[in-house]
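Fig. S4 source data, part A: sequence.
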Amino acid sequence: MLFRLSEVHKSYGVRDVLRGTSLQINPGEHVGLVGRNGAGKSTIFRLVRGDETADRGDVVRARGLRLGLLDQHVHFKPGSTVHESALAAFGRLQQIEHEMHELEHRMADAGDDLDKVLERYSDLQHEFELEGGFEYTARAEAILQGLGFDRDMWSLETEKLSGGQQNRLGLACLLLAAPDVLLLDEPTNHLDVHAVEWLEEFLQEYESAYVIVSHDRYFLDRCCRRIIELENGRAASYTGNYSDYLVEREERREAQQRAYDNQQQLIAKTQEFIRRNIAGQKTKQAKSRRKMLEKLERLDAVRPEQSSGNFRLQTIERTGNHVLTVMELAVGYPDKKLASDISFILRRGECLGIIGPNGSGKTTFLKTILNKLPPLAGEVRWGSKVQIGYYAQQLDDLDDRNEIIMELRRVAPSTATAGELRSFLAKFLFTGDDVYKHVRDLSGGEKGRLALAKLIYSRVNVLVLDEPTNHLDIPSREALEEALSAYEGTIVTISHDRYFLDRVATQILALDGLGGAEHYDGDYTEYHDWKLGFRSVSPPEKTEQENLVSVVAAAPASAPLLEKALPPKLKASTKPGVKVIKKKKAETRTSEQVESDIAQAESRLNTISEQMGTPEVARDAIRLIALNDEYQHTETLLKTLYEEWDRLSA
């Protein structure tokens, strides 16, 4: 165990962020921490590092644990260069190296102390070699280059770096320090695509543990083997990457809802039996069932998904088939060409995704096709009936002086009522008095939602989007992706979010930063694999029978019931489970025997309900589904026993 949170509560004023959060990180684990903005992800990092204390609960760290957390504001030694700052991560090796140089100078005049000097030098040399002293400079330089610091930048003083460059250098120093566990809060924020891909490769081979908070789902897919979700102040753990988490989370929610529905049906039936029989001949049975209900651990229904915003786009006018034709286009400025030889045709309903490193000309390309900058060469031709809406990365189309509702009215028809505007804004999570907030008081995510609301309300048939997901959390991104996938118009979008591009893009335009450009018909992953010269092969899916075997193995108590569904050749692969009550022939049984079986079945239902309510089962989808299946089978058996008891009583 590296660190553990046990039933931790943390509030800020009247807002409860963590409500009994429990989680544990172990050596070597590669974990993604996900949740909505404000769910408490950064709070957990601050608690683990000791910057804050929990209101209740325990935060336990392993003795001597070396934590690596990248601060939002990175500080370097005054006057130090990029290269020197990176090497400073190897402070102990530099000390050893310095002392070895001093000993080398002393050897000539050591006299009688020569043996001591040589012995000390030998010890230091052994430690230097053991700690990787002969490779540390090469390691530092490889990481600097991987994160986008070319050799000509190594001599720059850190004070002259931009904020984004300082953050990248801080990340480099953190990786070089190799702590016991890395706490990475949005590590890809200031990286271009090439640097992100390098970081993914680095982290995949990283031997120590790390926990990543990121909105980059593609990054989480490639780097994480476990996902912890924070929701409603609690943590749930899932095995696998982000895509695995999405599937398992839905399966858990479905199983939890089924279990809840089944329990509610049982409660209703039992209450009806009690009502009808509490004063009659079956008083004993009614009282027994009433005691069972009193002891029953009640399951919770699945909480409805918190709204992520309703991004459904309005009805639009149909354009011609060829929406945008670009022929041999060159973009840039008179003194600097950024990209050239760009040619493609974008048809109605298609989406062009634009990628490339920082400074490669992506935004310049958008401004050129929007006629805000003149082309250096070539031609841009829009089709018929085109109405363009532009979403700027800087959100500079928003007027800080306006209230939210007035900002939306800028694109609304004069006949739009205040009620209509408020109703539309509610789809973007602006409800109640929120609509009277000034734009200047909004967070980045709120401004992003407002800008999208304006764009969608304007009913344009071509969307030109510059990093539309930048200010959105993951649920809001997913809602936007669903809307754009259903959008009947045409889209041109810059994005560093590769998961987003896989969902919406039908073409990729890749600018290389050296003046070149490539066009590819397909989504991002298809383009990426084509560049690498291979196609990924998915593992074969399990058959339905193999999945059933897994369920039986995961929940032995349900095996006797579930094994009936298995073909003979697969039955051998399941383990024998706990014996459950079997119905005997009615003519050989008395009503007392049936009552005993009813009590056992009711007890088994109660036990299953308790097991399904434990955190261990809630985190294990296969076991939860198996227990739910056993619950249904046992409930059916109980119904049969009731009918048998009624016959015997009659």
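Fig. S4 source data, part B ends here. Confidence is low (pLDDT under 50) at residues 534-587.
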